[in-house]
């Protein structure tokens, strides 16, 4: 079952994010890794900034989480994580389909350049890597992240973005 995140889900969400984020340890730049990967305060800040989280629940247990953030002309997929034991079993794809159904706006996803598994997941689900110049522009325009993270990230866009993007935006 996929449902909106409730206040009582925060512990489970924090646990899933931090457990699944272990895959990034040693892959993303060491200066961007911190422990825990997403502290409770940061999760609260993301929610306050308008990230609406959805959870995948199986057998009464939250097993996946994905957020969507409306940024005006686009929607961002934010903080997509699945419990390690359930990865590659359709949980992430189901959550992605759910958040895509919530908006008619073009969707963008930012992730780490070296997180090849994440990039391949999004590509299998219809997203396309944008060019390096477009990535720079999009990350600075729609995300609030440090320059070092911009430098070491990529952006993927859905078909709605690709169709409407002008030269230099793809």
What would you note in describing this structure?
This protein is an alpha+beta fold. The protein has a single domain (about 1-165), classed as Gcn5-related N-acetyltransferase (GNAT) (Aminopeptidase, 3-Layer(aba) Sandwich). The protein has helices at about 10-20, 40-50, 90-100, 115-125, 130-140, 145-150, 160-165, and strands spanning about 1-5, 50-60, 60-70, 75-80, 105-110, 130, 155. Strand 3 (about 60-70) and strand 4 (about 75-80) form a beta hairpin. Strands 1-2-3-4-5-7-6 form a 7-stranded mixed sheet, sandwiched between helices. The chain is built from 7 helices and 7 strands. The mean pLDDT is about 95. The chain is globular and about 45 Å long.
Look at the structure and name the CATH superfamily.
Gcn5-related N-acetyltransferase (GNAT)
Q: Structural class from helices and strands?
A: alpha+beta
Biggest β-sheet: strands ordered side by side in the sheet: 1-2-3-4-5-7-6
Portion in strands: 15-25%
| CATH architectural type | 3-Layer(aba) Sandwich
Global morphology: globular
What distance lies between the first and last C-alpha atoms, to the nearest angstrom?
35 Å
Major sheet description: 7 strands, mixed
Mean pLDDT across all amino acids: 94
Helix percent band: 25-40%
Order of helices and strands: EHHEEEHEHEHHEH
Please report the first level of CATH classification, the CATH class.
Answer: Alpha Beta
How many beta-strand segments?
Answer: 7
